[in-house]
């Protein structure tokens, strides 16, 4: 039996709290983490984030291990036991250097703190089985079908099936692995100088060890993946032109665009955040408008260019939002409505860039095809390194290939 004097470190206690809130209260992982980690120092905060977000991402695989070795359905466990065992399973299965005895003892102590003395013996037994058996269990998991790979790498079956269909088995598996790893820290250099490494493909993108809080507050940098910055560059906005950004918050792309920009956001709170970011980044020619992109005021018309960075399933950014894979839903109907609405506000011969941070044909090329808009093939000629593997007039960044977020980008011509 684990010692009653076992200590639970602050990082693990915070990670446990996040797991409870995400899976028992349907809280968003990033918000739950901010609350749970509010009093932690930098080192503990980093560890807590790794443990919490990693366990949220890997929960399908963790639950399989707990059920196999614990011989009891996870859904039948007390919430506190379930959270404690998930945290233990993640540490023992996916984090190097965690002493087995410490993981077991802390797991038991978390259950004791929850005043579930009756569950201590069971928790201790399962935690010990995990310590001995999770590594060989994980190593033996097959991945020859979408469902098997979804279990092995912890994705819902529908996501695995989508990637199998769109990319093939080998690339689907590589993508699953890549999106379980931490996202690179990349910023856009707005002004001044920065310590880091410039991205070899996307001008203005810099790879850094950490985001400089002072530079961010002063508007010198903006956290933004290379793929997201690629979208802004693909718009090709020029001085003297008017551009409509239809889904603009939080403003990273809108503040990249030359000329005059009308940045539309439907949610009032997000529009206020957008306006704050516009001011911070010194984008004096960006006007924020609160409106539904499908029902714009009539005076918003005659634009030279438009950007529709549409809401989507987010399958290209699953490593930066740990719980998104369990919430994601494709939104092709909304995306098509927004794309058509933007096209109506662009002058004949103007261009519309349609982008989504996902890897799903139903939300990308299928939406473009359904719009009936003419495709501008010069986009892929400008960025051949990101050319779509099946549709060469489009762009598709792939995390396992390009080491950035997964974005689909098309440039279309208004009639």
Approximate strand percentage: 5-15%
Order of helices and strands: HHHHHHHHHHEEEHEHEEHEEHEHEHEHE
Spans of at least 5 consecutive residues whose pLDDT stays below 50 are: none
Question: Main sheet?
Answer: 8 strands, mixed
Overall pLDDT score: 96
Record field, number of beta strands: 12
| Helix content class | 40-55%
> What's the tally of helices?
17
Describe the protein in words.
- Helix 1 packs antiparallel against helix 2, helix 1 packs across helix 5 and helix 5 runs parallel beside helix 7.
- The termini are far apart.
- This protein is α/β, with parallel strands linked by helices and 415 residues long.
- The strands form 2 sheets. Strands 5, 6, 7, 8, 9, 10, 11 and 12 form an 8-stranded mixed β-sheet that branches. A 4-stranded antiparallel β-sheet has the order 2-3-1-4.
Features:
415 residues; four-stranded antiparallel beta sheet; 45% helix; alpha/beta; elongated; eight-stranded mixed beta sheet
Give a quick rundown of the structure.
This protein has 17 helices and twelve strands.
List the helices and strands and how they pair.
Layout: H1 10-25, H2 29-36, H3 42-57, H4 59-70, H5 79-94, H6 100-113, H7 120-139, H8 146-153, H9 157-167, H10 169-178, E1 186-189, E2 197-198, E3 205-207, H11 213-217, E4 221-223, H12 226-235, E5 242-245, E6 260-265, H13 268-280, E7 286-290, E8 303-309, H14 332-344, E9 346-356, H15 365-371, E10 374-375, H16 378-382, E11 395-396, H17 399-402, E12 408-413
Parallel strand pairs: 5-6, 5-8, 6-7, 8-9
Antiparallel strand pairs: 1-3, 1-4, 2-3, 9-12, 10-12, 11-12
